[in-house]
Amino acid sequence: MKDALDIFLKYVLPFIAAYLINIVMNKFLSKELLRGKIHLIFLKGIILAVIWAAAALTALSGIPAFEKTWETAIASSGIAAVVLGLAAQSTLANVFAGIALSASHSRPFDIGDRIKIDSYDPGFVENITLRHTVIKTYQNEIIYIPNSVVGSSTIVNYTQEDSFSYPIRVSVAYGTDMDKAMNVMSSAIYTHPKHYGARPVVLCKSCDDSGVTLQALVETKDFKDNPRACSECLVEIMKRFKEEGIEIPYNKLVLLKGEE
Fold first, then answer.
1. I want to staple 213 with a disulfide (CB 3.0 to 4.6 A). Which of 85, 114, 205, 233 is the partner?
2. pTM given for the model
3. Domains in the chain: ranges and CATH
């Protein structure tokens, strides 16, 4: 009985303690609580890794052949660092890149931000671990990008400002009263319930083969509202153009019947 208790205390208890600490930390430091605090999320990952490593070393120290595990680990830490550095260069690069990303005062993103990293599809930051950053796209695709790649990439953050805007374009036929068309387009956007900010300015984007392209920005408070707001504004603009007799040009195919 005593031997079983000794085995439990030496080899099992350290892992149970590490597991319980892991549960407590996940409960009180949940993803929802840490949302927007990327540095704390990354620090949490480091602390958990250290706790599990300590549990493993404690269990090994109970084995006669590894009685001096702690002393050996400390004494050989320099050699171990060199060996680990050579054997796991990419992993350590991801860890250090994650530290740099999370510890910076001017962090390029936080949990919940919508970002674009180089050629990867835009998505929302779900998590950052010791190895990678997790992005969730609009198609519910989960992208795991190594921290070393994130740290050396160009990052576009769509949600750090107070609002988000996106251009919509509509063509009108030549001969249209431009002031009238611009006013109708501006009014349709400005009166949309999700519009944010001042009345939009409509600009002449280009003069094309079949008409003139007008452009305006649809601005919303929340990025998630913007795609639907742009779609609804375009539909409303087409309705108002029809009511005002403003023609939207389109390609027409004319068939001529030849003589028999």
1. 205
2. 0.55
3. 2-157 (no CATH), 164-243 (3.30.70.100)
